[in-house]
Structures are given as C-alpha cells and as structure tokens.
Design goal:
5 helices; mainly alpha; two-stranded antiparallel ribbon
C-alpha cells in the first residue's frame, strides 16, 4: 500500500489544518469535488439498476404494476351464448334420470342416489342382514331344517356384541362376594 494515502493524525486539529492546506489549492478542490460527485452518481445509478434487476428477476414488478388496463373502449357484444360483456354464459348443472325411480338427480349426486334407491348402500346391507337373521327362525320352522352348519360362520351384520364383565372392587373381590 501507498503510505502517502493513509496517514494517521495525532489529533483533530492536525487533521483540520491538513484539510485546509489542501483545500486552498483550487485544483485540489476541483478534483475532490469531481471525485465525490462521480462516486455519488455511480452509487445512485448502480443502486437503482441493481434494484430494478432484482425486481425483474424475482417478478415483483408484475405484482406491483398488476395487469395492464384495457386500452380499447367498452363495447357491447351481441353473439349467441355470450352475455353483453363478452363472457360465456354459465351452463346449468347436468341432470341425470334415475332408472329405478325416474327422478331427475344432479350428476354429482347420481351414484349415491342410485345406490340408496336400489338398496345397495351400507345401511341397506345392514337392514338386509337383519331381515335375513330375523326370518331365519321362521324358515327353520317352516322347512324343518334344524340347526344349520352356517352357525359357526362369522357374523357379517356389523353389530358387535359386548362381553359382560363382572365388576371388580378395588380390594380384589367381585361384587357377588367371590374372590378372583
């Protein structure tokens, strides 16, 4: 490094006297003024250019400016299936006819309606299982089949039977007096 450029002063008054000595020469004043002016202009321009560059790269300029305004004047449009502002008319929701009950049902509700209407839903299968279970006794009486080998099959009715437990007291005895 050049030792002439970097000089440490002992106190403030020595720095001020050195400054005044350089500023008495008009050539030095012009050089310092030009250097200061160019530095400020460069920093200002570089700062603005860098900020604009970052805004364009991140896409924030589109967010701030928004969509450009429509330059053509407002005009009424007279076309079929389009309203006076130029937007397409919204179509009505599509309806389906249930083949079982001939009802008109929205397309989004057609499958659940048909399932329920034809008795194939979850609730309908439970009801059907209960009907079969309740009529089993009468069919055995009518046909005299007796005990079926289907008794050992799993229960598909969806009903869970709770086991009854005898309450146990905190001292280890059961409620009826017997110890466990």
């Amino acid at each position: 490094m050049n030792s002439d450029l970097f000089h440490e002063y002992a106190n403030e008054s020595e720095l001020i006297s050195e400054f005044r000595k350089y500023m008495h020469d008009t050539d030095n004043v012009e050089k310092v003024t030009n250097y200061l002016y160019n530095s400020l202009v460069d920093d200002a321009i570089l700062g603005v250019v860098l900020e604009v560059h970052c805004d364009v790269r991140t896409g924030i300029t589109e967010a701030i400016e928004g969509e450009p305004e429509d330059t053509k004047p407002y005009a009424l449009i007279d076309l079929p299936d389009i309203d006076v502002f130029g937007a397409a008319n919204a179509k009505k929701a599509i309806d389906c006819t249930c083949p079982n009950c001939d009802r008109s049902v929205a397309a989004s509700r057609f499958a659940p309606h048909l399932e329920k209407c034809m008795g194939m839903g979850r609730n309908s299968s439970r009801i059907a299982s209960r009907r079969i279970a309740s009529t089993r006794g009468t069919s055995e009486q009518l046909f005299g089949t007796g005990i079926s080998d289907d008794e050992d099959d799993a229960d598909w009715s969806g009903e869970k039977r709770k086991k009854k437990f005898q309450p146990v007291r905190t001292n280890g005895t059961k409620k009826n007096g017997k110890t466990s």
